[in-house]
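Bumping my old thread because nobody answered last time. Still need a sequence for this structure:
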């Protein structure tokens, strides 16, 4: 979908931004997200879907 925007931003960049806006996940490089995870003591990167395996 090609849209006209007042600033020089590619449509693909807008779609990436919208994806992160919908999911609520942070947008940035892995080192940035790793640092935020450490500071918040919380997982922010997507994990595998489904039930977690039990430890034996």
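Sorry it took so long. Here it is:
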């Amino acid at each position: 979908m090609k849209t006209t925007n007042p600033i020089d931003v590619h449509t693909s960049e807008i779609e990436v931004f919208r994806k992160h806006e919908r999911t609520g996940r942070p947008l940035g490089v892995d080192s940035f997200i790793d640092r935020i995870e450490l500071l918040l003591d919380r997982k922010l990167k997507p994990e595998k879907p489904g039930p977690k395996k039990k430890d034996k």
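The chain has two helices and no strands. Let me know if any region looks off to you.
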